[in-house]
């Protein structure tokens, strides 16, 4: 099978209402002078800049932490007018609120180490924390769930994070870790692993397994990771609203410690906005939609 490629097509479309002489009776058609070039991010940006549009900004915060919200991103027009949309929207956090655990929510029970002062606010992101090195949150399993309940066998984890420029784009530290109280060396963790990579690590029974994820954190924008664990052996992962991979391991390969304590942000330096646990599998696609819609066709040019 021949490799697939993406092309950008340049052409003039004849309008029969305006250009009667050159439009065929069954037109309109592309003119014969149409041309195509291979798509690349640089070509894409150059085209939009030529017609007056700047690149899209990052996505803003979701309007709801669960139950279905909306988020917006914007771009600016550098000419007196630009065709197209200057604002796009998409759905986000469409998973059910029932049973969700959100340790970053205001008023949530949690323990800061060494002190909450190392978890600062993030401008324009009301639910986000800016973490300094050597600070983390620890939550006892007894505070995570109602009396008599343990950590679920099936669950979905949602995380939104951003590295800061001073990191050089090199991510490190543990975003999320479930560690057993009774079994030394038994844990399930999501760790950053350098530039553009994270890994899901499970350790137990004297062995460990890692699943690597490609996450372009080096652009210093907000990124979204959703991990769904099924039947202790199947992992489905979405990154930035798109399916990344599904791994089917041997039976009980991801046996989650039932007496787990939760640790968030250990050795991580950056911004953390979302850390939500849903006690249900198959929810990873609900963090944010890959389908976007234009919501603002009229844009005021950016003031220079």
From TrEMBL:
Residues 94-281 form the Thrombospondin-like N-terminal domain. This is Laminin G domain-containing protein. InterPro entries: Compl_asym_regulator, ConA-like_dom_sf, Laminin_G, TSP1_rpt, TSP1_rpt_sf, TSPN-like_N. Residues 153-280 form the Laminin G domain. It comes from Euphydryas editha. It comes from the Eukaryota. Signal peptide: none annotated. Keywords: Disulfide bond, Repeat.
């Amino acid at each position: 099978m021949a490799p697939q490629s993406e092309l950008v097509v340049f052409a003039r479309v004849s309008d029969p209402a305006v250009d009667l002489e050159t439009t065929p009776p069954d037109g309109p058609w592309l003119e014969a002078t149409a041309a195509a070039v291979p798509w690349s991010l640089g070509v894409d940006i150059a085209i939009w800049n030529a017609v007056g549009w700047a690149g899209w900004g990052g996505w803003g915060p979701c309007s709801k932490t669960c139950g279905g919200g909306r988020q917006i991103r914007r771009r600016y027009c550098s000419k007196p007018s630009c065709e197209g949309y200057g604002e796009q929207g998409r759905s986000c956090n469409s998973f059910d609120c029932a049973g969700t655990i959100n340790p970053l929510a205001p008023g949530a029970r949690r323990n800061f180490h060494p002190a909450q002062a190392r978890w600062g606010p993030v401008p324009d992101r009301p639910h986000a924390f800016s973490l300094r090195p050597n600070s983390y949150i620890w939550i006892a399993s007894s505070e995570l769930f109602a009396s008599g309940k343990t950590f679920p066998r099936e669950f979905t984890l949602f995380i939104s994070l951003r590295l800061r420029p001073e990191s050089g784009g090199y991510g490190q530290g543990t975003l999320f870790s479930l560690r057993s109280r009774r079994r030394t060396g038994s844990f399930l963790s999501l760790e950053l692993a350098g530039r553009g990579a994270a890994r899901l690590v499970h350790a137990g029974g004297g062995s460990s397994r890692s699943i690597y994820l490609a996450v372009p954190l080096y652009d210093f924008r907000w990124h979204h990771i959703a991990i769904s664990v099924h039947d202790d052996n199947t992992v489905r992962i979405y990154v930035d609203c798109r399916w990344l991979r599904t791994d089917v391991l041997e039976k009980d390969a991801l046996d989650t410690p039932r007496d787990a304590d939760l640790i968030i942000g250990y050795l991580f330096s950056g911004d953390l906005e979302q850390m939500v646990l849903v006690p249900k599998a198959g929810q990873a696609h609900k963090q944010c939609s890959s389908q976007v819609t234009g919501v603002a066709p009229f844009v005021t040019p950016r003031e220079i």
